[in-house]
Design goal:
DUF1759; Peptidase_aspartic_dom_sf; 4 domains; 18 helices; 3-stranded antiparallel sheet; about 600 residues; alpha+beta; 6-stranded mixed beta barrel
Length: about 600
């Protein structure tokens, strides 16, 4: 046994020595005959080495190989690596002298060898038992090792065990490196990890869990395109048929796109003048063109100005209830049906001073809508997504009254004569100390540059425009869009706004909800709401509900007012009424339950 191992070391030293001498050979010696002789000599030594190696393995069968110096030194791996490098260099030199150059049609000169290019060695992937890595490992090992007819079963098993760690290595630990064990080891590994059902579930989970794109972003489009393409390829590699997948994949991907990309896709398809369903290749081409366009336009001022001007046109035409933005061009305001002055009915001080019963009689006598005060329709035909903030029914809050109550607070906000918009109080208080609870919520505001901040907002379904404080705009670094308008509230209070901003609002309770908001910038919005600490409502029904503002009873600043343009998008099914007549109402929303 010792003689055999000593002989093995001598052969190993000879192979390594020959390789080192070859590397020192001058270029003029590297003729075709010289290389062929070197190659033959190397092959003879390698066959002797392999023969001795297999004999050693057979003689040590059943022995703890970790105690033998031959295996401790891992001499086989060292010599095999040298052999592969030596053989590769000889073959490269041989090919350089026999290859006919296509450009000249003449053989290369033996005295002028081709320059050597040392390519990196192909590294086999290491498999640790992660199912997501199995398919990649399986395909590469199958191509490089398993289907390589020049490798013996012993060599294949050696390569297989050297690429395994963790659980798969433990699985094959008791299989010794023998020719008969390779097929058993390979099948054992496949039975454990070649689980098509599990692998397909993991791929589909990655495909369907992609996040929706909330704003135009070339990086986000590339990510969703690359992830989807990768998942489709992985499913095909599992042998799944993909002939009829296109319509499902297209629906999934398009539903994740931002609004503008979605709109452009629908426009492109509608112009195809065909009844055929779109294909996945069509969507791929569209997305590639789309992210290239966005990359070209990203950061250009002209594009930003164009988009901002469009946004101003869309938003500046909105009416308002809580507050009204008017173009500063002397446009006429409709006359009040109560006092004939230039303001709307709900802004009329004289109308607001009347009792709810008197206001109701006046609206009925004039044939006005009980919900929005419009003379053109009745409450049954009203499309306004508003309702009474006291009881949640389909009538204006100014028309709410209770039999045991002479007068209730009817408005939640006003504009101060000094020009700074303010919400008078979170609770509108009368002499008899009844309270009107206004809906507040905590939300995450995300700017276009990725900055985010948790802010407290007032949800005012009576305001047909949204507003944000100057401090919040500066804190988030929001880009301003120039506007020139006047904000007016109940009465004659007015304030000028010179800019508006766009941003995203995300729910703290629903990770899937995100809405883009355009808001006008005001120097300040409110005093602290409520004005003083209020007692927590004793209402068991809401104890376990996710409240939009868990600290609704503590005074705090309002950073934003969300108007009716956002209100309709956040309301969800679910309405709870307090057992007492004067108690609050809990409404379910995408932001949590509001009171």
């Amino acid at each position: 046994m010792d003689d055999l191992m000593n002989k093995q070391r001598e052969i190993a030293e000879q192979i390594i020595k020959n390789y080192n001498n070859y590397k020192k050979s001058p270029k003029e010696r590297l003729t075709k005959a010289y290389i062929e002789t070197r190659c033959e000599n190397l092959q003879v030594l390698w066959e002797k080495f392999m023969d001795s190696h297999f004999k050693i393995i057979c003689l040590t069968k059943g022995t703890d190989k970790s105690t033998l110096k031959y295996f401790q030194e891992d001499l086989y791996s060292t010599v095999e690596d040298t052999y592969c490098q030596y053989k590769s260099k000889l073959k490269e030199e041989m090919e350089a002298r026999t290859k006919i150059t296509k450009e000249s049609g003449r053989p290369t000169s033996e005295s002028s060898p081709m320059p050597e290019v040392k390519l990196p060695r192909i590294q086999l992937p290491v498999f640790s038992g992660n199912y997501e890595e199995w398919q990649t490992f399986y395909d590469m090992f199958l191509s490089l090792i398993h289907n390589n007819v020049s490798l013996s079963a012993v060599q294949k098993l050696h390569y297989l065990k050297s690429t395994l760690t963790g659980e798969p290595a433990t699985l094959l630990r008791n299989l010794s490196i023998e020719e008969a064990n390779y097929e058993e080891a390979w099948e054992k590994l496949k039975r454990r990890y070649n689980n098509k059902r599990y692998n397909s579930n993991e791929i589909l989970k990655r495909l369907f869990s992609q996040k929706a794109i909330t704003s135009e972003s070339p990086a986000a489009i590339k990510q969703i395109l690359d992830t989807t393409t990768s998942c489709i390829k992985s499913l095909k590699n599992l042998g799944l048929k993909s002939d009829s997948w296109d319509i499902f994949i297209i629906y999934l991907v398009v539903s994740k796109l931002d609004y503008e990309s979605h709109r452009q896709w629908e426009t492109e398809i509608s112009h195809s003048n065909t009844d055929d369903l779109p294909t996945w290749d069509q969507l791929v081409n569209f997305l590639e063109a789309r992210f290239r366009t966005l990359e070209m336009l990203e950061g250009t001022k002209n594009n930003a100005k164009s988009m901002n001007n469009n946004n101003v046109k869309q938003v500046s035409t909105k009416k308002s209830f809580h507050s009204k933005l008017e173009e500063d061009k002397g446009d006429k305001v409709k006359s009040c049906t109560f006092c004939t002055n230039q303001h709307l009915l709900y802004q009329c001080k004289q109308f607001g001073s009347k009792s709810p019963e008197e206001r109701s009689e006046f609206v009925q006598s004039k044939g006005l809508c009980y919900n929005c005060f419009s003379p053109s329709h009745n409450v049954r035909s009203c499309h306004q997504a508003t309702c009474c903030r006291r009881c949640g029914r389909r009538h204006h809050t100014l028309l709410h009254f209770e039999r045991d109550q002479q007068h209730v607070a009817t408005n939640s906000s006003s504009m101060s004569p000094g020009g700074v918009s303010k919400v008078v109080a979170h609770f509108a208080k009368e002499d008899h100390q009844s309270e009107v609870l206004l809906a507040t919520a905590l939300v995450e505001v995300v700017s276009t540059n990725g900055y985010s901040q948790i802010v407290r907002v007032l949800i005012d379904q009576g305001s047909e425009a949204s507003f944000i404080s100057e401090n919040t705009v500066q804190s988030l670094g929001l880009k301003r869009i120039p506007v020139n308008g006047i904000v007016s509230g109940v009465g004659n209070g007015q304030s000028r706004t010179k800019s508006m901003v766009a941003f995203s609002v995300k729910s703290l309770h629903n990770s899937d909800f995100c809405v883009t908001v355009h808001a006008f910038v005001l120097s300040s919005l409110t005093s602290f709401l409520p004005s003083s600490k209020t007692s927590i409502i004793n209402w068991p029904d809401i104890e376990n509900l996710p409240l939009a503002d868990p600290k609704y009873g503590l005074p705090g600043k309002i950073d934003m007012i969300l108007g009716v343009d956002v209100h309709s998008m956040i309301i969800s099914d679910g309405l709870l009424k307090h057992p007492s007549q004067s108690g609050p109402i809990a409404q379910n929303t995408k932001l949590g339950w509001i009171l």
